[in-house]
């Protein structure tokens, strides 16, 4: 019974995390659009000598990884790799925000970091409600 509850808990955490990242990436790609994301940060970034190519690369990376990483977590496909890429995404976001504004509000980033960390620390055999499990 405990194993079953742990598998369900892992699935809920994984899908919840996936939904958060999916919609964040969706907004950046399809609602705000990449140019909007770039324009939001470009002036402030250039004041810190971070030029448009870097801001553009970061905007594309984070948007694509969040969108497709979210889909991967929701479906349970390439779960571990997606968590690694989303972790790198959060590190880049944290570094960028720290450069732009040394004391910034982590209320959106820190919970995502905790969710990714929990998923990476949970045993892979709990990931039974996933495409990864079906492919093994």
**Number of helices, counting only DSSP H or I runs of 4 residues or more:** 6
From the alpha carbons, calculate the radius of gyration and give it in angstroms. Answer: 16 Å
In whole angstroms, the N-to-C terminal distance is 23 Å
The tally of beta strands, per DSSP, is 0
Mean pLDDT: 94
Q: What is the makeup of the main sheet?
A: none
Low-confidence stretches: none
> Percent of residues in helical segments?
over 70%
User: Could you say which overall geometry the principal axes of the C-alpha atoms support?
Assistant: elongated
Number of domains: 1
Write up this protein.
The protein has 136 residues and is mainly alpha-helical. The chain has one domain (2-135). The chain has helices at residues 2-31, 33-47, 52-75, 79-100, 109-121, 131-135. α3 runs antiparallel to α4 (79-100). It is elongated, with a radius of gyration of 16 Å.
In short:
The protein has helices at residues 2-31, 33-47, 52-75, 79-100, 109-121, 131-135. The protein is mainly α and 136 residues long.
Features:
136 residues, mainly alpha, 6 helices
Annotate the secondary structure layout.
Blueprint: H1 2-31, H2 33-47, H3 52-75, H4 79-100, H5 109-121, H6 131-135
Helix pairs in contact: 1-2, 1-3, 1-5, 2-3, 3-4, 4-5
């Amino acid at each position: 019974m405990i194993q079953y509850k742990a598998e369900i808990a892992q699935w809920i955490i994984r899908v919840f995390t996936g939904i958060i990242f999916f919609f964040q990436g969706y907004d950046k790609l399809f609602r705000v659009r990449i140019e909007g994301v770039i324009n939001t940060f470009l002036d402030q970034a250039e004041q810190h000598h971070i030029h448009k190519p870097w801001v553009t690369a970061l905007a594309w990376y984070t948007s694509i990884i969040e969108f497709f990483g979210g889909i991967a977590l929701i479906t349970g496909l390439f779960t571990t790799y997606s968590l690694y890429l989303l972790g790198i995404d959060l590190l880049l976001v944290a570094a960028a925000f720290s450069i732009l504004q040394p004391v910034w509000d982590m209320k959106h980033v820190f919970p995502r970091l905790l969710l990714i960390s929990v998923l990476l620390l949970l045993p892979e055999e709990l990931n039974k409600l996933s495409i990864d499990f079906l492919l093994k």
